[in-house]
Write a structure and sequence with these properties.
Largest sheet: 2 strands, parallel
CATH topology: Endonuclease III, domain 1
CATH architecture: Orthogonal Bundle
Strand content: under 5%
Number of helices: 9
Radius of gyration: 16 Å
Structural class: mainly alpha
Length: 187
């Protein structure tokens, strides 16, 4: 049976379709998954999401399963090892950002009890449901993503601009931007 999907997930590779069908827009409440998407969305800056998806398993391996405590301990030795790994985006600033963001992430956990509690407070604990019919209607950023971005930067994170944060919000289900005609719209 053919399913009607958001246009960005049509006619592409299986991993991309599975991501759309099973993950994108599903509300996340696991801090490790929040951290994973913050790092992956930051790594994507200037690249396509398909590039990052193809490298995701290697990211999981070399970034300690996206354990922020472990990543926060990375030093120059680990940065150099990561710079030599063709399985990830070998951008020194993005790698260093992941380490810096891990430290800030831990501070947010300490302050709020969990990153999940911190981030979902921005949406009163429930996903924002949009009703777009075409991809051109879907914004690249919103006032809310700008607000979150500013707060994360104030807390020491980088590679968390408003556009990156909006993509993160979509990935983690804080906002549901599945198109109205998509089979995932109601889920």
């Amino acid at each position: 049976m053919n399913k009607t999907r958001c246009t960005w997930a049509s006619d592409t590779f299986d991993q991309y379709i599975r991501y759309h069908d099973e993950e994108w827009g599903v509300p996340v409440h696991d801090d490790r998954v929040h951290f994973e998407f913050l790092i992956l969305e930051g790594a994507q800056a200037g690249l396509s999401w398909s590039t990052i998806l193809k490298k995701r398993e290697e990211y999981r391996k070399v970034f300690a399963g996206f354990d922020p405590k472990a990543v926060a301990q990375f030093g120059e030795k680990e940065v150099e090892e990561l710079m030599g790994n063709p399985g990830i985006v070998r951008n020194r600033l993005k790698i260093q950002s992941a380490i810096r963001n891990a430290k800030a992430f831990l501070e947010i956990q300490k302050e709020f009890g969990s990153f999940d509690r911190y981030i979902w407070a921005y949406t009163d604990g429930k996903p924002i449901q949009n009703s777009f019919t075409e991809m051109k209607e879907v914004p690249a950023q919103t006032e809310l993503s700008t607000k979150i971005s500013k707060d994360l930067k104030k807390r020491g994170m980088n590679f968390v601009g408003s556009t990156i944060i909006y993509a993160y919000m979509q990935a983690c289900g804080l906002v549901n931007d599945h198109l109205v005609g998509c089979f995932r719209y109601e889920s």
